[in-house]
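Troubleshooting log. The previous structure file for this entry was overwritten by mistake, so regenerating from the original sequence record. Sequence copied from the archived sheet and checked twice against the printout by T.R.
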Amino acid sequence: MNEDIDELANSAIDPRLDNEHWANVLVQALPYFRHWCGKIIVVKYGGNAMLNEELKAAVMEDIVLLSTIGVHVVLVHGGGPEINHMLERVGKESRFVNGLRYTDGETMEIVQMVLTGKLNKDIVGLLLQEGGKAVGLSGVDSGLLRAKRIQKDGADLGFVGEVTEVHPEIVQSLLNQGFIPVISTVALGEDGDMSRYNINADTAAAKIAIALQAEKFVQLTNVPGVLRDVNDPSSLIQRIHLADVDKYIADGVIAGGMIPKIECCTMARKGGVPRTHIIDGRVPHSLLIEMFSNRGIGTMIY
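Regenerated output below.
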């Protein structure tokens, strides 16, 4: 058994590092191990990190490693590209209202099937394959997420909802037993409403982080973070104070699809989550770099 472990460990060591440098890496990481052990972090997982198999494997390895050393990881996932693909396969034409997808009853069934029935279980399987203990949930299970129907500029969007309540007891119970909860963002309606609602995964993850009193909320996305110049990755802004967010939006530095992601970070921060981050899921092991080094990666809202 020990020989098997040694073989695995040796295969993971960068041959360019001699023993002294390798030991130094571990020693530098030790304070971070101590700090994060026993803490809850919520990771929103989506984008290219879900589509590229090598990146997907790296994310699973990171999460299992974190769990193994005692960090309580909650993984919340989306699945927009996979939903689009399934709608195309069944010949379901998408309808948009004010730029947002209208979700009728048939589309909602497909959303639930893809997110809860396929993607969620695929992720659980990958975590188990890496040696982790994982359990798949949706927002419907144990009434974890309750939602109400929303509108866009007064127009009905069908079964698209926003989270109104989070009941995290089932998640906390799983964390206490050493499991990694993997959550798909299909929610149940409010009391008396048995409908299912499609929820924005970034927003749901932020609200779950608040309800769990998480120490850190991380969004894995497909950009380096907030850039002063979107065409220049070296213009990354590593830290943004909460009070400066509106100014960055007004100046156009935070724009387009980055605005809702930043809004989720500010929501989590105002809700009591001490650290909120947007990091590049295209970088292998970006989660470990963020957690266990002083380099950091991506943009932190503080």
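Confidence is low (pLDDT under 50) at residues 1-11. Archived copy saved in two places this time.
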